[in-house]
Amino acid sequence: MTHADTALRDDIRLLGRLLGDVLRHYEGAAMFETIETIRQTSARFRRDGNPADARTLDRQLKKLDRDATVSVVRAFSYFSHLANLAEDQQQIRNLRRARLQGEPLRGSLAQTVELLGSRAVTAARTRELLAQACLVPVLTAHPTEVQRKSILDTEREIAQLLDDSARHDLADDERTARLAALVATLWQTRMLRPEKLTVADEIDNALSYWHATFLRQLPALYGDLAQRLGGEVLAARSTRGGGSSAAAKPALPFLRMGSWIGGDRDGHPHVSAQTMRGALAAQSATVLGHYLHEVHLLGGELSMSAMLRPVDAALARLAEASADPSAQRADEPYRRALTGVYARLHATAHALGLALRARPPLADAAPYANAAEFEADLMIVAQSLAKGGNDAIAAHRLHPLQRAVRVFGFHGATLDLRQSSDVFESVVTELLAAAEVCPDYRRLSETERLRLLIHELAHARPLLSAHLRYSERTRRELAVFDAARELRAVFGPAAIDKHIVSHTESLSDLLEVALLQKETGLLAGDEVRRCALMIVPLFETIEDLANAPQIMQEWLQHPGLRHLLIPPDEELRGGPPLQEVMLGYSDSNKDGGFLASNWALYQATQRLRDVFDEHGVQLRLFHGRGGSVGRGGGPSFDAILAQPPGSVRGQLRLTEQGEIIRARYADPRIGRHHLELLVSALLQASLVTVRAIPRQAEFEAALHEIAGHAYRAYRSLVYETEGFAEFFFSATPIAEIMELNIGSRPATRKATGRIEDLRAIPWVFSWGQCRILLPGWYGFGSAIEAYVSAAGPASAKRARLQLLRDMAREWPFFRALTSNMEMVLAKADLAIGGRYMQLSSDKAQASAIYASIRNEYKLTLKHWLAISGQRSLLEGNPELARNLKNRLPYLDPLNHLQVELIKRHREGANDERVKRGIHLTINGVSAGLRNTG
């Protein structure tokens, strides 16, 4: 056992012992003994696989009364939470050790710069790419993060105490005592929310990660890049376009944050113009509060006296303009200057209508017109320090603050807008009918729609009239576009710069959004009229992905449309025109299964790349990935490098969803590492010439055939098996998940009871809860079986199996895909999943469907082990195998109890403890598996 493994084991044992002490103290010795007996039985069953232990565990759990059941569930859930913290600290130790020993970890900036140098990619070429690049992690509020913020805050403090640095700062007994107090606090803190989350709650939850990670780690990462590349990669903002608003046209930083929270209306009745204003106000308050704090500290640190060290004229003028009344600071120009900067920044917050908890300024001052003006004042301070030979002093706080202002401005993250195409169709239909232009737009063919929309976009006459009455839906949608125009004027064009169209099925779906921009003042220009918001199509189903290249071909080759739809702000990049396309991982998986979805996404990417190249337009792909493999999850670094060659080219956006946000960004050191991985992947995918895979065409032809078999196997089960929908809704915790207060968005688009209308998130989440994890592997076994069997003679079958082994070894895409699948197979437990069948209303039907699932799992496991050459799963990932081994004995009782509690609940048990127990098990299983949503 390595030193690192020993440290992890010690942390888990310490936290487990402290949790045990808390249980004894608050629940009594008898309850502690009960929980310990259950734990030992579960661990023994996991280790030995003795059926007698399984029966014993079942008896132990069934004899618990309802109060005891809740206590047991909470105990095992909290152990999973604590084990996660210990594993995160293990990752931090590994990162720290590699840094101290000078080991360039795979995906680190050090490794990437070394790799680029070895391929003759100069630092200047890298800076040139980054000057035009775009890399945006986009935070979303999908309901798979079941943690309360109170729990997260306490867990952050526990993580800090587990860190090796705490061992140096505190005596062992002092540290242990504080850990014990925090574990006791957790035990007495309500794990569940009493009310359903609001959009405002989700905005606040997301902003907690800004304080923990983004505000400091993004500027630090830019500083590291500047040092490694021999120059800044973050251009200063232009003060052009000032005036009374906070708007300006900045040179956008390549790495910046995006958010859907407050702007994503697709199927979300609670997102509106009001939530958009609330989201940007909250983001602005967060960044301005950070700036005020840093300026205050900077003023305290820059105590240099002009009597000892003269300053330049610009700094002297800034100091004189501050109106600092203190005679004590008369000879301290930096402090006086920063007093004035603080006052102007405080006035800016007031002008934006933000109520900040900040020290009042010493004097009144005029607000900044935009972030560029604030940055210009900071630049005066920086240049004066540099002239005085004080670069080292500026590097500590001033330079990170300057970089933060360049990254976040006054708006924080770019807020994306999203709505479904059918909503826009309805709104446009109403507007055209009310204006007596077209009585029923819905009845038109696609050709007729395009002709009408293009005509209206070229026409100066508005369709909207203040004298006409419109439906509530239409008024709400128009209010969103009006709010976007107003917020761009206040915070600048980077605050809101695109609108995503879900379920894009035709070109008219996109032109409808352009028409709404025209009607709300977002279509501007004299000679060439252009949309202020880039219209981003989202292709989601297997069929939509197949049609995407043709739709974009029609768009790009149509005279006039290319200029109309690409916003004028894109001209500031100095490169070719650019258009973004979003690809949906979740719905394509639910539509066609894991393998067919991934292959459809790969093919769509290849064909879109070729179409855009043909028309001289830069393609930026926006990957709508979730946390689980069934929704496109898995290591981001590998996923980016597995994209088709030539499809990244410095342009990439991707969603960060659900519990993945917490896993990646709750701890600033892990957050920094993940951001490094994203930057490294972008650079490697864009600048490192990929060596041609000699058998690429053969590999793709094989996977195309395999994906077809997988698609048919998946569709046969999910959409063609009689009674499958009823089976899913009764044999998984989907109904109970829909009751849980873990998100503001409804779980279904329509209350039909059909799989097609269920959102992909609860679909995947439910399969994770019952430990089957079907969306992450189903269809692979049947597909490989059919592909190999079709070869005919035994020698041909062996050749096909060898081809599959070569694909897993040589093709990054297939390697990443199957690696993710292997992780899901290791987390799945069909024996546990089988217990959920007793929840089904039709036992015979459930038994038959479950038999199909179990047989497919066995077939998938058999073929993957044959392809990978392993004797068991995760032989190549011993760290994950060890972590799963540590936590599964604590997960199994939670699943057993979940089944028992759901059974009681559905049989009519009118007891709040039963419902609470179910929701607690959902929390615990989610924490234990870590990426189930």
Structure description:
The chain is mainly alpha-helical and 933 residues long. The chain is globular and about 85 Å long. The relative contact order is 0.10. The model is unreliable at 241-250 (pLDDT under 50).
Describe the secondary-structure layout.
Layout (H helix, E strand, L loop, with lengths): L2 H25 L1 H20 L2 H12 L3 H35 L8 H10 L4 H10 L1 E6 L9 H14 L1 H6 L2 H16 L11 H31 L28 E2 L13 H29 L11 H8 L12 H19 L19 H17 L3 H6 L1 H11 L5 E2 L1 E4 H14 L11 H13 L13 H20 L6 E5 L4 H13 L3 E2 L5 E2 L2 E6 L2 H16 L3 H5 L12 E7 L1 H7 L1 H22 L2 E7 L11 H6 L9 E6 L2 H7 L2 H20 L8 H23 L5 H8 L2 H6 L20 H10 L10 H10 L4 H17 L1 H16 L2 H6 L7 H26 L9 H29 L5 H18 L4
Parallel strand pairs: 1-2, 1-11, 2-3, 4-5, 5-8, 8-9, 9-10, 10-11
Antiparallel strand pairs: 6-7
